[in-house]
Task: inverse folding
């Protein structure tokens, strides 16, 4: 069963690999390959900044993929590989910036904007409701309820 | 009295509405300011994490004689400059006279890192445009380039006598940059212990 699962994983990862990048690397196990996939999809290609090194065919992206592969085979941990990248290219190389004071606006900004938008929406709806609800005098209210009563009968 | 109150509330409400009417314009202006700031920034100017850190050491074949190894340790105790170049790089040709001018000031040892290039092409390039380098190191695989965080050739690093990277410039060095920034910095570094 386990073997079957690993086989499936390999198949899935392998097919992704064949589509996304040119090189095919031989890994010792499926776990290594999965780690490789995750890392190259979260490291920014500094030459072509909108892309990860998995997406890019720039020379540097190829070199970095090769390097990630070699580091995995040499037994480096994910953390070590990311640190290697950050030491050389800075934190902007990470697609997921770490949470720290200077990146807090980046992380919570979208939620703050969403919150403001929701509050604004509620306020607008309330105001509209208030404006659209007709103000009836007590006479008119009485007539309205009379009409409703008649309807029921 | 009650009529007056009534009028006041309606005018208050109208005021609220007119304030909201200006909101989109406000948001637009805010966005325009931010985008305007964004336009003045150069997205290729990635701050180097190497500044203030020891320069990555390397040992590579010399371009003029590939049997010989050039080691960055030879530069210990000197102010030096690493200029990453390649014969395939168009802006390197553009900055080359400026690098030559810089080398002629003798304020720093000027070292070339011949990045991912064909050595024969690189030698021809130097023969044609002049060789201002004390030595050019051959980084054919670009591994040393990765250690230095090179991502766009040309790049120029300045290293002090302690072997600490003090400055990095991405893209061609211009005469203005040379006179306004590099030469004053090199003079300062020469005076440091």
Result:
């Amino acid at each position: 069963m386990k073997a079957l699962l690993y086989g499936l994983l390999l198949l899935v990862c392998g097919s992704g690999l064949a589509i996304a990048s040119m090189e095919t690397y031989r890994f010792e196990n499926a776990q290594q390959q999965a780690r490789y996939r995750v890392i190259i999809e979260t490291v920014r290609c500094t030459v072509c900044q909108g892309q990860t090194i998995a997406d890019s065919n720039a020379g540097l992206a190829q070199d970095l993929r090769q390097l990630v592969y070699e580091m995995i085979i040499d037994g480096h941990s994910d953390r070590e590989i990311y640190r290697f990248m950050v030491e050389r290219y800075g934190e902007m190389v990470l697609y997921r910036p770490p949470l720290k004071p200077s990146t807090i606006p980046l992380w919570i900004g979208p939620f703050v904007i969403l919150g403001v938008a929701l509050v604004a929406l509620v306020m607008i709806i309330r105001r509209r409701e208030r404006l659209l609800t007709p103000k009836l005098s007590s006479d008119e209210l009485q007539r309205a309820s009379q009409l409703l009563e008649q309807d029921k009968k | 009295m009650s009529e007056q109150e009534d009028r006041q509330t309606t005018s208050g409400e109208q005021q609220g509405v007119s304030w909201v009417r200006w909101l989109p314009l406000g948001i637009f202006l805010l966005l325009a300011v931010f985008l305007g700031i964004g336009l003045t920034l150069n997205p290729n100017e990635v701050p180097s994490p190497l500044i203030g850190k020891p320069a990555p050491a390397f040992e590579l074949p010399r371009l003029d004689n590939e049997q010989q190894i050039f080691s960055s340790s030879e530069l210990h105790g000197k102010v030096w400059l690493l200029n990453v170049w390649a014969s395939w790089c168009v802006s390197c040709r553009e900055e080359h006279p400026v690098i030559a001018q810089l080398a002629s000031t003798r304020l720093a040892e000027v070292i070339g890192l011949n990045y991912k290039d064909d050595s024969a092409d690189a030698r021809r390039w130097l023969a044609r445009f002049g060789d201002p380098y004390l030595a050019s190191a051959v980084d054919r695989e670009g591994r040393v380039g990765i250690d230095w965080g090179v991502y766009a050739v040309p790049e120029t690093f300045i290293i002090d006598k302690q072997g600490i990277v003090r400055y990095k410039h991405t893209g061609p060095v211009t005469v203005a940059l040379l006179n306004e920034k590099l030469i004053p910095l090199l003079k300062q570094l020469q005076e440091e212990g």
Summary: Chain A touches chain B at residues 46-47, 49, 59-60, 63-64, 67, 86-92, 124, 127 (CB under 8 Å).
